[in-house]
Amino acid sequence: MSTFPTGSVPVLACDEARAIEDRLFGGDETREWPAMQRAGRAIAAAVQRDFLEIGGLPGAPRVLVLSGKGHNGGDALIAASALREVHPNLRVEVLFAFGERALRPLAQRAWRELAQAGGTHVSAPTGHYDLCLDGVFGFQFRPPLESHVAELIATVNELPIRLRAAVDLPSANVFHADFTYATGCVKMPIVDAPQAGRVRYLALGFFDGNEPGAERVLTRDVLAPLTALRPAQGDKRTYGHVFIIAGSRNFPGAALMTVRAALRSGVGLVTAFVPESLVAAFASVAPEAMWVSWPETPGGGLALEGRQLLSEKLPRATALVIGPGLGREKETLALAGEIVRSATVPLVIDADALQPEIVRAGDAPRVLTPHAGEFARIDGALPKNVVLVRKGPVTRIVRDGVSYHSFFGGPVLARGGSGDLLAGLIGGLLAQTPGEPLLAAARGVVWHGLAADALARAHGQVAVQTTQLLDFLPVVLRELVNEQ
Fold first, then answer.
1. What is Dmax (Cα atoms) for the chain?
2. Burial class (CB within 10 angstroms; exposed 0-12, middle 13-18, buried 19+) of 24
3. What are 395-415's pLDDT values in tens digits?
4. What is the pTM assigned to this prediction?
5. Cβ proximity of 347 and 356 under 8 Å
6. I need a surface site. Which of 87, 133, 443, 452 has the fewest CB within 10 A?
């Protein structure tokens, strides 16, 4: 199996998660309590970050905590206490799904601390809340769902609540979460849970990075090497040279966005091959790239007669990106097939170049970046030498039977051009590490997603442009440095 040493942790079946907790804590409350404190405070910090996407917590927020009997309830109660430390005017209402007397010792302890800080016990939720923390059930829930709890959750699902957060898993897969905070480890049921919303993995030190697993979660640690000082004697050739073959008169913007993202990847050199009618305008926008005028078909695509332009320069490349904005003309797609077939450097194949006859051509290692529709088109034609980046609400990178899930990003990416930026970013990273296409894909997906998160926190999810994401790539790396 292909893997990399840092930057991912395994997704666990529920019995595997239980075994890890037994090994770490062994039912010893003196060890469990500090872990609950870390989990609750991590949830509170994550809630505050994610709330920024809708303007941040107000000055006097109203919070509803749904508590079960055990650790999930305790985590939610501790999170509410931690939020109140930061927001003294925060009003916390706690509803115990099974009654206060049913609380287990550590959950009872968490409730006492919250009550001393001003938390109040309510018998029913009413009105508008800014935040709801769901801590009723965790991964040890077994159906059937008791009728009174089902009614409670149904009532809460109908309330006007600005942000709904589940601890570990949405209770009974019935609670409707906007975010689910997986503390310590990610359990398998959450990966495709329809009610989970956006999943956040909150590390609590359960893993050392060497654990096996065919289903994995990418972490921001995969980007850590990008925050280090570069060698003092390096020059532009040290950091790779990416060739980008993209664009048409009908889809000019895709090529430009791909190039602009590659320029932000840290790569030393970018050469872009685009239709000759676009070069002057593009060079004025991104003068750092080298722009090569390619002869055009009558429809404005790349013509076969330009092949010599690429073959003359190809020995300089360390990676190649092909596809964004190419269009579907037969001549252009035939050209793309010839380029992929003869390539001797690793490739990123994206967008219109994701055709069965193209993705299986040649022997060079390749990263494919399809969305759902494109994947349906090429499924069954995938070669063995491929890293597959399946874009979606949860992007999955697949290599040699191992799936790496990225929970970064969100609805802010649901707009035209996001995939073009990702292709350019992965291409630039691949040019720097041409022998490690899986690593380049993982770094590109995580960096792209984290920048989208940062963009949404700064400007919201709605009134933004796709290319604004580029300005948050350096922000992500600076944040990583501050966390280390």
1. 80
2. middle
3. 999 999 999 999 999 999 999
4. 0.96
5. no
6. 87
Residues β-bridged to residue 200: 181
CATH topology of domain 9-218: Rossmann fold (3.40.50)
CATH 3.40.1190.20 applies to domain 222-483 = yes
The pair of three-digit structure tokens given for residue 390, joined into one six-digit string: 């399946």
Q: Give me the tens of pLDDT residue by residue for the chain, a chain 484 residues long.
A: 445 657 999 999 989 999 999 999 998 999 999 999 999 999 999 999 999 999 999 999 999 999 999 999 999 999 999 999 999 999 999 999 999 999 999 999 999 999 999 999 999 999 999 999 999 998 888 899 999 999 999 999 999 999 999 999 999 999 999 999 999 999 999 997 889 999 999 999 999 877 889 999 999 999 999 999 999 998 999 999 999 999 999 999 999 999 999 999 999 999 999 999 999 999 999 999 999 999 999 999 999 999 999 999 999 999 999 999 999 999 999 999 999 999 999 999 999 999 999 999 999 999 999 999 999 999 989 988 899 999 999 999 999 999 999 999 999 999 999 999 999 999 999 999 999 999 999 999 999 999 999 999 999 999 999 999 999 999 999 999 888 6
Residues facing residue 11 across a β-bridge:
186
Residue 355 CB coordination number (10 Å): 20
User: Structure tokens of 276?
Assistant: 């000759």
Q: What is the 3-state secondary structure (H, E, C) of the chain?
A: CCCCCCCEEEEECHHHHHHHHHHHHCCCHHHHHHHHHHHHHHHHHHHHHHHHHHCCCCCCCEEEEEECCCHHHHHHHHHHHHHHHHCCCCEEEEEECCCHHHCCHHHHHHHHHHHHCCCEECCCCCCCEEEEEEECCCCCCCCCCCHHHHHHHHHHHHCCEEEEEEECCCHHHCCCCCEEEEECCEEHHHHCCCCCCEEEEECCCCCCCCCCCCEEEECHHHHHHHHCCCCCCCCHHHHCEEEEECCCCCCHHHHHHHHHHHHCCCCCEEEEEEEHHHHHHHHHHCCCCEEEEECECCCCCECHHHHHHHHHHHHHCCEEEECCCCCCCHHHHHHHHHHHHHCCCCEEECHHHCCHHHHCCCCCCEEECCCHHHHHHHCCCCCCCEEEEECCCCEEEEECCEEEEECCCCHHHCCCCHHHHHHHHHHHHHHHCCCCHHHHHHHHHHHHHHHHHHHHHHHCCCCCCHHHHHHHHHHHHHHHHHHC
User: Could you tell me the two tokens for 43?
Assistant: 């949830």
Where do the domains of the chain lie? 9-218, 222-483
Tell the residue number behind the tokens 């893997």, with chain if given: 3
Q: Smallest Cα–Cα separation from 367: which of 436, 313, 466?
A: 436
β-bridge pairing 198-202 and 179-183: parallel
